[in-house]
Amino acid sequence: DSGVTQTPKHLITATGQRVTLRCSPRSGDLSVYWYQQSLDQGLQFLIQYYNGEERAKGNILERFSAQQFPDLHSELNLSSLELGDSALYFCASSPGTSVNNEQFFGPGTRLTVL
Amino acid sequence: EDKVVQSPLSLVVHEGDTVTLNCSYEVTNFRSLLWYKQEKKAPTFLFMLTSSGIEKKSGRLSSILDKKELFSILNITATQTGDSAIYLCAVKTSYDKVIFGPGTSLSVIP
User: Fold this and answer.
1) Which chain A residue lies closest to B102 (C-alpha atoms)?
2) Which of B88, B95, B89 is nearest to B65 (CA)?
């Protein structure tokens, strides 16, 4: 158990809908990272927040957005969902922003878009 | 465009064999290279490499980075069935952007 929690574990929804995925980092960790893992794309970095502010952006679609709250939990919002958004979404946390910080991954949220 | 390539993509070996997994990268502003092991759930951290030529070792696993040739290898000696997993290589660039390779699927058969 990495100490990172994600909810929900599974989510099934329809195309066009909007969902929110939630992540609570390890106690004391200030950085939160979001990743998408699909069969054809592998693990893709989406976005990183550090202490409430956006720090780095990867391959995140405009239909997706994220935020980190004062209590350091983070939410990833996915809107106008398409079939291709079906994937495993991981959240990871690390103590800071240093490149020497290891990232600890949560168990993931499996999103299925029908 | 930043990219990370891993080879082979899939590997089947017998218990006791030694395997070498390769990771090469082309990124701007390289900061560190990480190896992860992913079984059925979330990736778990193995190694972080930032300096060339310094081997990192943990039990039967070891890894080394060559920043001149832009690659890293992950060695697993005396493989066990519990080593069966997908091994992911990732590169961190400046501002914490992280690029993952496609992974190497390792199957160790008794």
Assistant:
1) A42
2) B89
* Chain B 72-101, residues with CB within 8 Å of chain A CB atoms: 88, 90, 92, 95-101
3-class SS at B83?
helix
Digitized pLDDT (tens) for each residue of chain B, 110 residues in all: 889 999 989 999 999 999 999 999 999 889 899 999 999 889 999 999 998 888 999 999 999 999 999 999 999 999 999 999 999 999 988 767 889 999 999 999 99
- Residue B80, token pair as written in the block: 């066990």
Question: Phi and psi of A84, rounded to 5°?
Answer: -70, -10
Q: Name residues whose C-beta falls within 8 Å of residue B20's C-beta, 6 or more positions apart in sequence.
A: B73, B74, B75
CA distance A14 to chain B (A): 25
Residue A13 vs residues A22, A46, A80: alpha-carbon distances, Å: 16, 21, 11
- A92, A32, A109, A59: CA torsion to nearest 10: -100
In A18-92, alpha helices (H):
none
Mutate to test the interface with A, among B98, B100, B104 (most CBs of A within 10 A): B98
Q: List the single residue in A with minimal CA-CA distance to B42.
A: A107
